[in-house]
Amino acid sequence: MASTLYMDRNSPIHRLNPVTKLVILVTLIVIVFAIPFWWVAMGVVVLVIVPAAVVSGCGGRLTRIALTILLPIVVVLFIVQGLTFPGGRTALWEWGPLALTTEGLLFALGIGSRIVCLVLASILFVLTTHPGDLLSALTERGMSPKFSYIISSTLQLIPAFQDRANGILLAQQARGLVVGKGLRGRISAMMPLLAPLVLGMFTDVEERATAMEARGFGSTAKRTALTPVPDTTAQRIVRWAMPVVALAAIILPLATGAL
Amino acid sequence: MFSTPAKTDDSHRMRNTILIAVGAVVIVATYLYLVIGQPTEVAESSTSQASLIAIAGYVIGAILLAAGSIHRLPTATIAMIPVAIALNIVVGQLVSILGLPVYLDSIGTVLVAALAGPAAGVVTGILTNVIWGLTLSPLALPFAVVQVVIGVMAGYAARYGMFRRFYLAPIAGAITGIVAAVISAPIAAFIFGGATGGGTGALVGAFQAMGQSLLGATTLQGLLSDPLDKAITFTIVVVILAALPSRFRQRFPFVRQYRVFGKSAPAVTSKSASVTETEG
Amino acid sequence: MITLTDVSYAYPDAEHFALEKVSLHVGRGEILGVVGASGAGKTTLAKIIAGFIPHVDGGELTGTVVVDGADVSELKLSDAVAKVGLVIQNPFNQISGAKYDVRNEIAFGLENLGVPREEMAERVAAAADLLGISHLLDTSPYDLSGGQQQLVAVASMVVLRTPVLVMDEPTSQLDPAGTRMVFDVLSALREAGSTIVVLEHKVELLREHCDRVAVIARETVAAVGEPREILADERMTEWGIGATRFTQAARAAAARGIVPDGAVPVSIDEAAVTFGEEVPA
To answer: What structural domains and CATH numbers belong to chain C?
Structure first.
């Protein structure tokens, strides 16, 4: 089982070709950076991401994951930049070397809104896209199949690896390894864990490489795919339009001197 | 019949070399732009478009490097990379749960680079961040170029003999850490406003309160943790590899060609006992 | 189909030969079992037939290894791989990890070789059918038992239509049920046209399924012959293999003066017959 955040649902968003979604994601990133006002980022969230999340049926999961990731970062951001922003001039409140400045808060708002938008968009993308489909679609368009192999293989290996790491940890503890107090204790606890993990890694790798060779992995032939990833003309058009939108987002502010 | 190991796919050698060269140039140019260009202006206002150029430069550079590097890698190396990435992620996660003030999320990258060279390090590095982004948190993605640089430097460190002795490896690690801190500082500054975590954020705040610019603060914060983290990582890798039987290490053409671990056993088979030395 | 003539091989950095002066012949459509003590050289032999030695392992190989008309030690690895499919011990390491269901997993090799889509679909369905795993096609390979995973590994080789299939201890990591699954398909595979070499420890199962059995001992082929001949051979212990339980039982009985007529049994059926008869007091 893939260990990405992917949620299997049947929504229009899920059914979109993965490359379409990727292109849209990248375009959003460009827009949010090219016109870096906080209300642009928030606008994208409200007008694009929230509706997409609702349609995809992943809204709940998205909120939970995003909150876990975003909350600490945003809080730290506002505190740190609010209080110590180097360009801060208008102080609302002071305490020694720390000063709560409007410039600092505005800065945090700008950065924060961008991060929120990007995190939400990326997580929604991952929630609605099966990694196998994404990699197939990219390989069809010229990405080396070796990347596809490595990514899928890692995704499916990680749970097995974690199991093995846990197993080794248990075995070492049974032999009297105690996760000691303090920095030194904890670092030295890692070593007896790492050595068997890495050793196991090497024996496996030889066999895996043999198995891969036996199945023609080193072949220089043009690869084919058993299961094609669905695509539509409408999406193809959208994919061509997006870079234009992104370019416009970059050029317009420069042209109109809004920045 | 003596045969060489399976050949790599270098039918597009020219194209790959160009990709790698351009990728490297883009990354270096981006960094120089940020340092020599407009650091103050960028730091002062979150509305600066320099951030877009910075991030775009790093991402595009990293992708070009990876696209050029992947084709040089033989099947045996490719088989190793998923395991190395899993090692990066599992250990990195474990460390953050244990609450240690280090990252230790590059052990796999350095391991692969020491055995198979900088190209393998590049691929391991970039895909570690991609997979971290897909499975744990998208916040890892902007830092992909940093892992790439670690992979490159570890590969060259191995090539120039820094893994031959136990005391050389941490030095190589510390240098790599300095470069990593310096490259990642703009990312931490312009995308995250210095807030990449509780502890790191506090440090950035402290430096800013002392009068540093945002970029200066993130650079200093990085310099406090990265060199140490990478020195430890490189040491762990050299210790583990030294503990492995020589036969495992000598399977890798890169190890044999650049004598990464010191003198190897003679490659020609003979009925006399083989001589192996691990120095250090 | 397979002819090894005077093959000797030493691994790089090795002190002595792993295999010395091995000569072996396997006919088309034959199932050959190969037994030998651990470390005797079974895996080395498997890799030599499959062409992985010397291409991947290096070292020095002398002698000729002719498979389906060509010497695999002189071919490119990709050409050697087209002649010989290889199944190894560890089911987990044979799953590519690149695919999320068994259907695509089996097709992986065909995709690498650039086989057209319709042909792939047919060949995958046929291979799955042959191995009795059609009901698993939509399952993730990681959700299967060890035995099922090995069947998927075999299917992944079968689908490549190699004339020869080499199986290096395919059941050593499997439970009895899994082991049965793998051995039971051998006849089906032979019927579909494969020539098979199975290297194994489980001597009793080899007797049931193999046409001939070869013994590797002291770095060379110590004996080749009919399964029951080989398995009843008294030198089995000397070769580090030991006899089947039934043979041991019969010899123990003989030592106590209970000497049944007929040949020494090597399998449960023979044992039932032998011990079922009136035994002279």
So the answer is: 2-242 (3.40.50.300), 243-281 (no CATH)
